[in-house]
Specification:
Length: 166
């Protein structure tokens, strides 16, 4: 099952927003058809595809899913067009999945209650104008950090000594 947790980072024309949602629906459908559980997170226009503890070395451009050899500006290995009737070859996808360098992701969880993760942030009191953020914990949809260093900085900033990075 594919889960989408994307956000809109800028004001979008309604037609463009509809087109991007259609593309992301087809993206989720592709992974579902393969039987691979993924999460689509981040900016709705340039989402990251998460599988277990990795951000997969691929990206979407218009209605194409582009598979690369490395998560950071990798060389294109294969591409498919995200259509209603998906047409693709399995061998290049299997080769990519096993051989590409996918990006390790990190999460912050409570040591004593390992099923609780940092799931987002809230504010102390919007009513009185206190805009101090604090982490919110939850069992589902943990916040994803793309570097261990940034996750460590979050632990330091919010004094989360009772937490660990996984």
């Amino acid at each position: 099952m594919s889960i989408e947790r994307t956000t809109i980072k800028r004001q979008l024309d309604p037609d463009l927003k509809k087109t991007i949602q259609k593309r992301n629906y087809r993206l989720a459908k592709f992974w579902q058809q393969l039987g691979i559980d993924i999460e689509i997170i981040g900016d709705i226009e340039t989402p990251a595809i998460i599988k277990d503890d990795y951000c997969l070395a691929c990206y979407v451009h218009n209605f194409h899913l582009i598979f690369t050899d490395h998560y950071d500006k990798g060389k294109e290995l294969y591409r498919i067009k995200l259509q209603n009737d998906l047409a693709y070859e399995m061998r290049p996808i299997i080769d990519w999945f096993t051989n590409a360098t996918h990006r390790k992701i990190y999460k912050i969880r409570i040591k004593a209650v390992p099923e609780l993760y940092v799931a987002g942030y809230s504010y102390k009191s919007k009513e009185i104008g206190d805009k101090s953020k604090f982490p919110v914990f939850g069992r589902y949809a943990p916040k994803i950090y793309f570097t261990e260093q940034y996750a460590s900085e979050i632990i330091d900033i919010y004094k989360l000594d009772f937490c660990e990075i996984i």
